[in-house]
Design a protein that fits this description.
Blueprint (H helix, E strand, L loop, with lengths): L6 H24 L6 H21 L4 H17 L3 E3 L2 E3 L1 H18 L3 H17 L10 E11 L4 H4 L3 H5 L3 E9 L3 E11 H13 L5 E6 L1
Antiparallel strand pairs: 1-2, 3-5, 3-6, 4-5
Helix pairs in contact: 1-2, 1-4, 1-5, 2-3, 2-4, 3-4, 4-5
């Protein structure tokens, strides 16, 4: 572990950490993930600040500080994980946050080559491997906002039959009752073919006024 020789070196290390976070965060933002550009950049930069503070003021505590960062990032990543009906969502987002923190640590230690290689490998896993045609086995999570006329019974709005009949695992996210309509927001997970089938069933349901779906 190298101690920063000057404030210029500290700034360079923080800039490298921020750059690594920005590159990964841009990829996440591009794919509209919950942890995007600002979140990933702040995680990498924040981790670098903690390590640099320990290196400058208490070098003997640097290893303990890095262990504390790993623990803290674990709690942050856990907040991005959602469990619904036995299915877990957000593990990739949590792992990305964890990796960004690790890159911030390596940048703070002056290990620029390791930071660059780690960033490259992370981008390959997130961006390049997402282009691999996994086909029918590839699963994704989407939200479905379904709007019914106000005259429809609440139990009908609470029934996700078109989405569930398509073979998706669904969880009610929110229910909003207004003067003109009843809106239900569902979180659904399944294959792309199942999502396509859900769109077909929703389009054919005459009781549904409008609906919108968005990938998470």
């Amino acid at each position: 572990m190298l101690e920063p020789a000057s404030w210029q070196e500290i700034i360079v290390r923080m800039a490298v950490a921020a750059a690594a976070g920005m590159l990964i965060g841009f990829e996440r933002e591009w794919h509209e993930k919950s942890a995007g550009f600002r979140t990933i950049t702040l995680v990498a930069t924040g981790s670098a600040v903690f390590v640099l503070a320990a290196v400058v003021s208490a070098p003997a505590e640097s290893v303990r500080m890095m262990a504390g960062i790993a623990t803290g990032i674990g709690f942050l990543g856990a907040g991005a994980i959602i469990q619904s009906r036995g299915t877990v969502f957000g593990l990739t987002t949590a792992a990305t946050v964890w990796m960004a923190s690790a890159l911030g640590v390596t940048a703070a230690l002056g290990e620029y080559v390791l930071t660059a290689v780690g960033t490259l490998f992370t981008l390959i896993v997130l961006a390049a491997l997402s282009l691999v045609p996994f086909g029918p086995v590839q699963r994704e999570m989407r939200t479905y906002e379904i709007n019914f006329p106000h005259s429809v019974p609440i139990r009908r709005a609470l029934s996700p039959s078109p989405v569930r009949d398509a073979g998706l695992a669904v969880t009610l996210w929110s229910l909003r009752v207004e003067e003109t309509c009843v809106s239900a927001l569902w979180l659904a997970h399944g294959t792309q073919q199942a999502h396509d089938r859900a769109v077909e069933l929703l389009s054919a349901d005459e009781e549904i006024v409008t609906f919108a779906t968005e990938q998470r």
